[in-house]
Amino acid sequence: MTAATQTPGSWRRILGTLTLAVLLEQLPWSGLALALRPDFVLVGVLFWTLHQPARISFGAAFFLGLMADFQDGAVFGQHAIAYVAGVYLVLFLRLRLLQFDPLRQAAQLFPILLTVQLLVLLIGWLAVNPPTGLAMLLPVLSSTVLWYLIALFVRLWHGKGMQDRA
Amino acid sequence: MAMPGQLMFARRLGPTARLLIWLLAGASCVAVDARYHALDGLRSGFSLVLQPARAIMRTPFDIAAELGGFFVRHRLLQKERDALLTERARLLVDVNTAQELVRENTELRTLLQLQSRPGQRVIHAALLYRGHDWFAQRITLDQGGGAGLRRGLPVVDASGLVGQVSRVYPGSSEVMLVSSPQQLTPVLVERTGQRGLAAGNGHSRMELRYMPAQTDIRPGDRLLTSGIDRVYPAGIPVARVSRVSRSQSSPYLRVESLPLAGLDRSRAVLVLIADPQVTRP
């Protein structure tokens, strides 16, 4: 289902979607919407790691993780380490993940996203102070849903759509 | 360690080795930042890049709010105007009394040869961004070092103390809210004058710490800043006591209070700048 072709438009698409993810996080989220906000940047990085591992992997994840740390006013490295670990898990399960339909793929991504968030929690706990509750696990659910929607969109765009036209 | 199905060239490092390298980089980042605070330049860089993006992403919401305000009904404006006129009359009476008091106070202070209170300047700032509040509650303001802000300045809104400036960038700054877990605020109970220390608990509430069990305090009491820390000016409203309970195991009372400032709601805040030469002991 992946369009893993080395087209010149590919870089543009990767950078475009990642920029969009960063901009979405700059919206003035507050209250419940903030608590439930999916981690757009993490989902974007993991998505491109799955589909274009030669281009987006550890380095990009680390840099975008540092940016997430800046956004939350957290210690530098907290999200960076977690994102890098997420990229590793996706690379490890890559061929397996590519075989599933969107729903099952999202279900497989759930434990990975959960691991990432638990790492953020653990590092924050060790480096700063105990977290103020377990509300920080809520974005894992919304990120999983976001992954499902994106995977569904990509499948309709590349797979089924092309079959209909052919 | 062999990776099944890994699309890597044999000459490149395996994912596990790359993971370990990046984890090492991450761990050193955490250590350098948490222990030595040596990465403030990187933070300023991110703030320079992201601040325009935040301002732009905020614009549609601001315009929507302005448009909403434009269509307020005429009747509502009239009602508001009447209410404001009444309040103005009442406030004018208060101002007269206050002027009288200021005069009297100056005279008494000269008599006592006390230092007069530090002159204060305020800077208007607007809320630019909120991050996740998993470990500490912070907001980002749209004014920074360029406007004369520095670390440690108190931030207030119309109804009370919001927090303290914790990091300053060229065009924006971060404020640690009073409800944040590490944030301590020296307060006094308005009714009795009893001093205490209020700490945030991370859930938009504060608790008054180390109050002996026989303290006279009850729900509804207002807490004001006491001013003994030379950070906050005295007399800024901080919180209202919501619950007082006694615990069997501890010699202290458990006093919960709700911050008076609109920590989640207020969009415009004021940063108080006192003249440094006066506040220095």
Task: Name its key features.
heterodimer; A: 166 residues; mainly alpha; globular; B: 281 residues; Thrombin, subunit H; six-stranded antiparallel barrel; 4 helices; disordered C terminus
Output the structural class of chain B: alpha+beta
User: What percentage of residues of chain A falls in helices of 4 or more residues?
Assistant: over 70%
Which of globular, elongated, flat, extended, rod-shaped describes the shape of chain B?
globular
N-to-C span of chain A: 16 Å
Count of discrete domains of chain A: 1
Q: Which range does the strand content of chain B fall in?
A: 25-35%
Percentage of residues in DSSP E strands of chain A: under 5%
Which chains have the largest interface? A-B, 52 and 51 residues
- What's the β-strand tally of chain B? 12
Low-confidence stretches of chain A: 1-5, 161-166
Mean pLDDT of chain A: 87
**Total DSSP E strands of chain A:** 0
CATH topology of the domain at 120-281 in chain B: Thrombin, subunit H
Average of pLDDT of chain B: 84
Give the topology string of chain A: H per helix, E per strand: HHHHHHHH
How would you summarize the topology of this molecule?
The complex is a heterodimer of chains A (166) and B (281).
Chain A (H helix, E strand, L loop, with lengths): L8 H17 L5 H6 L3 H12 L6 H15 L5 H15 L1 H5 L3 H26 L10 H28 L1
Helix pairs in contact in A: 1-3, 3-4, 3-5, 3-8, 4-5, 5-7, 7-8
Chain B lengths: L14 H22 L3 H31 L3 H39 L7 E11 L7 E4 L12 E4 L2 E9 L4 E5 L6 E6 L5 E6 L5 E7 L9 E4 L11 E10 L5 E8 L8 E7 L1 H4 L2
Antiparallel strand pairs in B: 1-2, 1-12, 2-5, 3-4, 3-12, 4-5, 6-7, 6-9, 7-8, 8-11, 9-10, 10-11
